[in-house]
Amino acid sequence: MHFLLFTVCDLLGEGMAGIFGPQSTESSSVVQSTCGALDVPYIQTRWEYRLKPKRHNLNLYPPPNALGEAYLAYVKEKNWKMFAILYESNDGE
Fold first, then answer.
1. Under a CB-based contact definition with an 8 Å cutoff, are residues 49 and 66 in contact?
2. DSSP 35
3. Looking at the keywords, is Nuclease present (predicted)?
């Protein structure tokens, strides 16, 4: 994780205006913390249901309630009685 921290700091030192976040939870928390401490925009493109958005974060992934509403509308449209969602990991990522 130290390498990631140094990489983020190097990019910011070169004039990076913001950072698109990594996909892993561990890496994302390092980048989020660094960007928050340095007042740099941090843009996430993954589902992060556990954390509340910070002042400098923007998550482009739909919030869980919006996904739920979309799933429900689709299931009703198809007149399905049930459906399942399979995820690659236990975090639902």
1. no
2. H
3. no
